[in-house]
Amino acid sequence: MIAIVHHVSWFHRPQTLCFQKGAEYVFDSNLLEANAQFTDVIPDYIFKLHFPHS
Length: 54
Known about the structure:
- By secondary structure, this protein is mostly beta strands.
- The chain has one domain (14-54).
- The protein is 0% helix and 15% strand.
- It is built from no helices and two strands.
- The radius of gyration is 12 Å and the shape is globular.
- 0% of the residues are buried.
């Protein structure tokens, strides 16, 4: 599941979201900032440690 989260310009995000390479087209937008990192390794969305939410 992918969600669009709106943010204000002064909010600093401590970490980018990780997605598998090949999904870049989903985030392609001139209006939105994806805050995403694309990697060859399949991200472990279920068991990895998650950063704390503000």
